[in-house]
Amino acid sequence: MTAVPPGDDIDEATRREDERWRYALENAEDGLWDWSAVTDRVYRSPRCHTMLGYGVDEVGDTLEAWRALLHPDDQARQQQAIADHLRGGSGNYKVEYRLRDATGNWRWILDRGKVIHWSADGRPVRVIGTHTDISGYKELEQRLRERERLLAEAQRVGHIGSWALDTATNEVWWSPEMFHIAGWPEGQSVPSWEQQRALYLPESYARLSDAVARALRDGVGYAMDVELQRPDGDRRALEVVAEVIRDDLGSIERLVGAVHDVTDERLATAAARWRNKLLDRIASVGRIGGFDMDVDTGAVQWTDENYRIHGVDPATPVVLEELLERYDDSSRRRLLEALARLQTGSSREESVEAQYVTVDGRRLVLRITANIEDEPGSRRRITGLTQDITEEREAGERIEQLAHFDTLTGLPNRFLFRQRAVEAIRVAQRAQLTLGLLFVDLDRFKYVNDTLGHAVGDLLLQEVSGRLKACLRGSDLIGRQGGDEFMVMLCEMRKPEDAAIVAEKIIAAVGVPITLGDVEVQVGCSIGIALLSDNNPDMESLMRASDTAMYAAKEAGRNTFQFYNDSFYERVHRRGLLEQELRQAVARKELFLVYQPTVSLSGQGEVVGIEALLRWQRADGELRSPIEFIPIAEDTGEIVPIGLWVLEEACRQACEWDATGVRFSSIAVNVSAVQLRDPEFAGRVLMICARTGWPPTRLVLELTESALMRDTDVLRRTFAVFEENGINLSVDDFGTGFSNLLYLHRFPIQQLKIDRSFVSQMLEDLQVGVLTQAIINLGHAMGLTVIAEGVETEISLRALRNQGCDEAQGYHMTRPLLPADMATWIRARVAAAD
């Protein structure tokens, strides 16, 4: 059992001491090991082997033999620990790792050791240590961790947090759910009891403090309801309980408790109470009666309201058979079928709308809802409600009429006509039938309306609608599009010529003079015809085609019809060519930027910002309007690479101006809604700023209102990145979009740009001037900078300044300029101001 070579000078006392030490360790269930640097051999006591299930001679006495048993994930940690110790980095060697036992399983070992002999030159000569099997402790530790995890999960699910207060140190401990309930960041330290004052409403904190003081003084627990207010302002209703924990001597050593967040339950309870009250009121004022029927005996009971609804004297016994006779045949049959399903158990709940005739002859529409109650040990009962929905049904029919039919002519309106037409197209395509859409526009109607008055015009439209219907078959569809426009769909055409025949009939019928009171009126109509085909496969394309054909009929002299021709395809072809040219324009570098400044309306009219505007000049010198090519770029997705190019070029140019002393605050770039749908867009913007060296805080991104209509997670994350990095957002063309104003509150907007259409009309139209003032007031109320676009005159500029507008942009200052001209213009303006 000797680890040191026989030649080593170790006295007998030391050997005896070693023997006693080994004997003590081996009897303490620990294994002993002894490593000699001279022999590079390790002595391991029998216990080192048996705790792993190996025989004494089964594992060799080299370091490598034992390292082969070491778990791969623990090898680096074990080697680092022994290396630190041998270098003198630690007083003792101590590390936990896993060794593979004789069964192939892993056992946790606590390995402790120390260098006991050093050579004269400071190298370790002899190291001794022990192995302790701690697998049981590790398993217990794992179980405890799992129990803690399960407890934390249970608390999370149940919204129950736990806490403890050490009376000796005044330290407070919180469970993870307690942090969540309090809205306190879990990474921070637990607030002291005094600091928790800020978390509770004053009245709640006072009661809680009194309860804690009594508990610590008298040793009694407490239970109460309190209100907590999280740091973010959210109030929570809590049920708190606490108990006193004493030590072996009976002294109070800690206060422990639990906090149950019952906010949601309280809200649900309050909502339920409110709903019950509401139902009671509805039953009394909404004429909702109740009934109960014993399934076995057939006995029926009614509430007073049910008697009033049915027009029956409450003193009259209710006989089901007699009652059913007062319903019409269809309603009676459906009621009996529903009753049978409830009685047989094939249905648990039924609802029927039925026609009922009272004794005095009133016809009512009743909604009867019933369910079966058949709890074990109780008599089977059918209970339910009766609601008089006569007025509701009549109102619904009136609303349906108003929503889907033209109030003047009684024809289906454009919404209902489109619904029916879309279905007719679907049927025709499935059956491979021919179908035609006629767009009918009256000729000379405006003249009649203007000269004879709107009353005569309305009578004329009513008469024309009747004549149109008389020209059609029952299978055809007709609707009023609005004004003097009508739509006709021929649903069962045998050949295209049928559409021409109907169009001629309509033109002839409409052209017959109409006598309206003392006046005889004659009008005509122009009709555009589009046929369902591969080129016009849906309602949208048919509408566009028939509208185009109708204008062709008017150009042909009016009071005639025209079939849709290839001019539509020519426009589509032109668009396709434009798409192709746009892609080539990017590669050919035909796109370029011009710049227009924004000036302050206070002070000396300093240049505040510069907006980058995209232009396209073809190789032949022709300029394409952005109005023409930007929508195509958005539809094709080309706007994404184009937009990034614009952003980078604008930032690069801004840096160049800045470096040469051109004074301005920010550069503005227009951003498309398509770009905002890209989850990576915010990152790309920051990369461009970093690459060009332009500060994000001096970048303004101009968005249209339509771009803000879709409140998506992608949009919110993008705007959060912009806000975090100081990028300003501006709403372009404000007042022309269709979104609601909530986005001004929901999103981090800094600027509003009044659309040029308001600015151009504000001096001529008083109402428009009121609107511009309202926009300015709205922007200022929300802390936004308001900029007017399209300012072309000094008078407009003064008016906007008087209204309090902050900045202006437009041809009155300067048209959009090339970069060099822009720099010259700004320098000249600054020099003039100085």
Query: What profile does the largest beta sheet have?
Result: 8 strands, mixed, barrel
**Helix count, per DSSP?**
28
**Quick one: how many beta strands?**
31
The CATH class of the largest domain: Alpha Beta
Widest sheet: strand order? Answer: 23-24-26-27-28-29-30-31
Shape, principal axes of CA atoms: extended
Strand content: 25-35%
Using only C-alpha atoms, the radius of gyration works out to 44 Å
The assigned structural class equals alpha+beta
Q: Report the average pLDDT across residues.
A: 87
In whole angstroms, the N-to-C terminal distance is: 99 Å
Low-confidence stretches: 1-10
The CATH topology name of the largest domain reads: TIM Barrel
Task: Indicate how many domains the architecture comprises.
Answer: 5
The CATH homology group name of the largest domain: EAL domain
CATH architecture of the largest domain: Alpha-Beta Barrel
Give a description of the structure.
It is a single chain. By secondary structure, this protein is α+β, with helices and mostly antiparallel strands. The chain has five domains: 12-133, Beta-Lactamase, CATH 3.30.450.20; 154-267, PAS domain (Beta-Lactamase), CATH 3.30.450.20; 286-394, PAS domain (Beta-Lactamase), CATH 3.30.450; 410-565, Reverse transcriptase/Diguanylate cyclase domain (Alpha-Beta Plaits); 587-826, TIM Barrel (Alpha-Beta Barrel), CATH 3.20.20. It is built from 28 helices and 31 strands. The protein has an eight-stranded mixed barrel with strand order 23-24-26-27-28-29-30-31, surrounded by five helices. Strands 2-1-5-4-3 form a five-stranded antiparallel β-sheet, sandwiched between helices. Helix 27 (794-802) links the parallel strand 30 (785-788) and strand 31. Helix 18 packs across helix 19. The relative contact order is 0.03.
